[in-house]
Amino acid sequence: MMIDPTTFRKALENATLDKIIKERDKLIREIRRYEKGKIPEDEYCMDPSPEVVYRMNNVYLAELCYLIIEKDKEKDDY
User: Fold this and answer.
1) Cα torsion angle, 43, 44, 48, 52, sign
2) For labelling, which of 23, 36, 55, 56 has a CA lying 20 to 30 Å from the CA of 64?
3) Residue 39: its pLDDT value, please?
4) How far apart are CA 59 and CA 46, in angstroms?
5) In the prediction, which pLDDT does 78 show?
6) Where are the alpha helices (H) located in 1-78, listed in sequence order?
7) How far apart are CA 15 and CA 18, in angstroms?
8) d(C-alpha 53, C-alpha 41), whole Å
9) Closest C-alpha among 54, 60, 57, 55 to residue 38
10) Measured distance CA(9)–CA(49) in Å, rounded
11) Contacts of 49 (CB under 8 A, 6+ apart)
12) Are 1 and 49 in contact (CB under 8 A)?
């Protein structure tokens, strides 16, 4: 089951910048794996489907990028 983007973001709002970057990198790896067609056939029968996971990972990635910008700005404000 996928969570909504707002919940995903809220789960990481208090994380360190390093942890958020690691999560971003993990999402990028998963996105690339899908784009390169490296999803095993048996995963296509899963719910949610690899297509849905791919789309949601892109939305999550956008949320993480905004969060990284905010965290970086906070760092500069101190």
Assistant:
1) positive
2) 36
3) 85
4) 20
5) 59
6) 5-12, 17-35, 50-77
7) 8
8) 15
9) 54
10) 22
11) none
12) no
Rounded Cα distance between 47 and 27, Å, is 19
pLDDT tens readout for residues 20-61: 999 999 999 999 999 999 988 777 778 888 899 999 999 999
Tokens of 66: 């905004």
Say how far residue 75 (Cα) sits from the centre of its chain. 22
Q: Phi/psi zone of residue 53: left (φ > 0), alpha (ψ -120 to 50 degrees), beta?
A: alpha
Identify the pLDDT of residue 74.
Answer: 79
Alpha-carbon distance values, 3 to 9, 10, 11 (Å): 10, 11, 11
Residues 67, 15 contacting (CB under 8 angstroms): no
Amino acid at residue number 64: L
Residues making up the chain, counted from first to last: 78
